[in-house]
Amino acid sequence: MASERTRPHLTVRPPDALEDGDGEPEFIRVSGDPSHVWLDGLHLVETTDRRVEVGKYYYLPNGEGMFVEILDIEPAADTEDEHDPHSPQDERIEQIDGAMDEVSIRVHYYVSATDDQYRVEGEQTDVAHRYGLEADFAINMGDIAAVPYVPVAGIDN
Hints:
Blueprint: H1 16-19, E1 27-30, E2 36-39, E3 42-46, E4 57-60, E5 65-74, H2 88-94, E6 102-111, E7 117-119, E8 125-129, H3 130-134, E9 147-151
Antiparallel strand pairs: 1-2, 2-3, 3-9, 4-5, 4-9, 5-6, 6-7, 6-8
């Protein structure tokens, strides 16, 4: 029996400014299959292509979820990593090409479990490993795999 990917249930949640009638929303998520996001006027749509690329976006739904943009990819200097080759999960991680590559990300929004959202002020960047974004399975117990998004304008019709 084929297992289906767990999909987070996202809802529209515009910022307070929109609710008060003060301007356009900066960030809206709309659930569906696929899900859509509008970020500062940029229209993004969920994709099944998990491969990390500069300019792609990811929703990281674990804990206080984050919506991030890929800025740069630095290939791993060494193929050796800290994974246990006997662990079934780590064996799956090793199947990801360039699993230990360092991916620079820009955090655009945090999304809390209560559906409250807030924009990250200034330029907040971070680094993640490629496998943490590309894996189609939970890295840690209770996690949900990252959800990749691409700009609608870049999709071939």
